[in-house]
Amino acid sequence: MIKVAVCGANGRMGKEVCQTVIDNPDTELAAKIDINGSGVYSSIKQASENVKIDVLVDFTQPDSIFENAKFCLNNDIKIVIGTTGLSDSQIQELKDLSLKNKTGCMIAPNFSTGAVLMMMFSQIAAKYFDNAEIIELHHNQKKDAPSGTAIKTALMMSEAKKTFKCGNCPEKETIQGARGGTSYSDIQIHSVRMPGFMASQEVIFGSSGQVLKIRHDSSDRKCYMDGVMLAVKHVFDIY
Questions:
Q1: Contact 22, 16 (CB under 8 A)
Q2: Lower CB density within 10 Å: C or N end of the chain?
Q3: CA 146 to CA 227: how far, in whole Å?
Q4: Taking phi first (over 0 means left), then psi (-120 to 50 degrees means alpha), and beta for anything else, what does residue 176 get?
Q5: Within a 13 Å sphere around the CA of 123, how many CA atoms are in the beta-carbon half?
Q6: In angstroms, rounded to a whole number, what is the distance separating the alpha carbons of residues 212 and 189?
Q7: Given this model, what pLDDT does residue 72 score?
Q8: Residues 2-107, CATH architecture
Q9: Cβ(95)–Cβ(238) under 8 Å?
Q10: What is the pLDDT of residues 132-167, one digit of tens each?
Q11: pTM here?
């Protein structure tokens, strides 16, 4: 039985993860951790001093995930990170710490099967198009922009070529930010924050006479749960 703690347990994703852990015959909900609410531990440190934790699942905030992950990796707690907002340098530091301490760590910008396939399909299409942009759309309570999924998609696409602005004329923004943010290989990422959305992303490829759109939409947080449980079992078996 894998003893799982959930950090951010009172959030919308955290509640879904807690229930999924309870319902799974291979896992036990060892602790709920959240800075808000009663009946839960207020920190990973407090929880780990009171119960055994094999794997911690983190769905918190961008400003806390890095320290949360370092605490886990330095205290023999394997971690699955669903929180986005980590920089490339922070990810590398966590990777080095995981290898040094032989403690499993998985960082995934998206646990939905469809979203992962969208990223893979976009990586394939990137070989055949010289122009591409990404539009990601989330609810208006998401704090980081662009999304981790959009950043990861751009990174995967960038392996195909150095720039996706082939033939573009010199640009001048009359309103700053109108062209979105420039990411890997000059891929523009546009972030929309709007009530009514949960999580959507569209990757647009263009060439003379044609446009290819690859889009994924999430309408229920349950679509992430199979991926979360696969990640929990995977990191538990590492080392």
A1: no
A2: N
A3: 22
A4: beta
A5: 14
A6: 16
A7: 97
A8: 3-Layer(aba) Sandwich (3.40)
A9: no
A10: 999 999 999 998 899 999 999 999 999 999 999 999
A11: 0.80
Residue entry with tokens 């198009």: 129
Q: Extract the tokens encoding 27.
A: 């896992």
What does the block give as tokens for 237? Answer: 């078996």
- Pick the catalytic residue: 32, 78, 142, 216? 142
For the chain, what's the residue count? 239
- Residue 37 pLDDT: 75
Q: Distance (Å, rounded) from C-alpha 217 to C-alpha 158?
A: 23
Conformational region of residue 101, where left means phi above 0, alpha means psi within -120 to 50, and beta covers everything else = alpha
Distant-in-sequence, close-in-space partners of 227: CB < 8 Å, separation ≥ 6: 108, 110, 111, 112, 113, 116
Which residues make up the CATH 3.30.360.10 domain(s) of the chain? 113-218
Active site (annotated) includes residue 142: yes
**Quick one: tokens of 41?**
């531990």
* The 27-33 sheet, strands edge to edge: 27-33, 2-7, 55-58, 78-81, 105-107
Q: Is the CB of residue 218 less than 8 Å from the CB of residue 111?
A: no
Task: Write down the catalytic residue from 32, 78, 138, 190.
Answer: 138
The CATH-assigned architecture of domain 113-218 is: 2-Layer Sandwich (3.30)
Tokens for 22? 């309870």
Tokens of 170: 């010199």
User: What are the C-alpha distances in Å from 49 to residues 22, 130, 140, 180?
Assistant: 22, 53, 36, 45
Tens of pLDDT, residue by residue over 87-120, are: 889 999 999 999 999 999 999 889 999 999 999 9
52 is an active site residue: no
Q: Which residues contact 65 (CB under 8 A, 6 or more apart)?
A: 58, 81, 83, 85, 86
